[in-house]
Structures are given as C-alpha cells and as structure tokens.
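Supplementary notes for students who missed Thursday's class. We covered one full example, reproduced here. Read the sequence, then the structure, then the short commentary at the end.
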Amino acid sequence: MAEAERIIGTPGTPDDGGEQTATPGASAADQRPVTDERRPGRGRRIAVLFAVAAFAYALDLVSKMIVVAKLEHHAPIEVIGDWLEFHAIRNPGAAFGFGGAFTIIFTVIAAAVIVVIFRLARKLYSFPWAVALGLLLGGALGNLTDRIFRSPGIFEGQVVDFIAPKGFAVFNLADSAIVCGGILIVLLSFRGLDPDGTVHKD
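Structure (token representation):
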C-alpha cells in the first residue's frame, strides 16, 4: 500500500512546490504541478494593466499635443475662475515641478519604474494591483516620452505641464495618473493585498 501511494501520489498533497492531484486514468501531463504560469486569471490581469496604461498614456499624449498646439505661448485659460487654470509651461524637473536640476536622474528613475512594473506583471493576479500598476506605467511612459523627444535634447527633454490649481504647482495628466496609482498601492498595502492576489495580516 505504501509503495502504491509513493508511485501514484497522495491526492491533494503538493509535490515539489506545485499543487498536484492524482486522478485515476489521467495522463502524466494532466497531473503536472500547477505553477504561476498555469494559474488562471493572470492573463486577464495583465490585459487590464496594459489597457489602463494605454488609456492613461494616450490621454496624456493627446492632451499635451493640444496644449502645445493651442495653449503654449498664449495667456492662461480660466477653467474655474482663478481657482483652476490651463497654463502651459515646460518643466525640467519631476512631477509638480520639483527638482529641475536633475532632469537626467528623473529620466533614469522613470525608466527603472517601467522595468520594475514589467517584472511585477509576471506574478500579477490582483485586479486592483493591475489598475494601480497600469496607472503608474501609463504616467511614467507619458513623462518619459517628453524626456526623450522634447527639447532641449534626448533624456533632457522638458515635460509639458498645464493644469494649474490656485496656490499649487502646475502638473499634467501623467502626474495625476502616477499619484493616483501610488495612492492606490498604499491603500492596497495597508489592506495586506499583494500583487499575486494573496492577503497577509501583520
């Protein structure tokens, strides 16, 4: 009996780190361990991540094209009195105009964030995390595009900002996506939800 259990395997018992269940009459291929690549749902979560990223990136890109064509070198447009204006500026720094002397450093940071997001996507099974990472990815790509293709040069390009609340720094939609994604990640972390879909309690 012990020898038979050793050969067939005990139902429901993980073997070599995977989840495996022996089914009478099943082939060896059907009884392989369930790895991350075979878990259901990852493809849908990755699709959500890239869909959110594409939407955020496209919205930021189109808005900047309109601002450069219609608003740059013109007087600010009042949206809500003097509380909110559209005022086109070129920003060499990070989000909200900080760190103007470190343009190349912020370019490298944005590229690193994108790489990290792609690495996290390989083990992504959480819908909220997919949305959060998609916002971060879309925002980072939006500002990185400016860094690469706008003047004064490659990796030193100035970001187009235009949303100007009263008494606050001027920013753009990419900055907004990055901030929203960051806030969502903080909330998910407080709730103990990990990108792989597991929930932990400290």
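Commentary. The helical segments are 2-8, 42-70, 103-120, 127-149, 173-191. The longest strand covers residues 84-91. If anything here is unclear, bring it to office hours.
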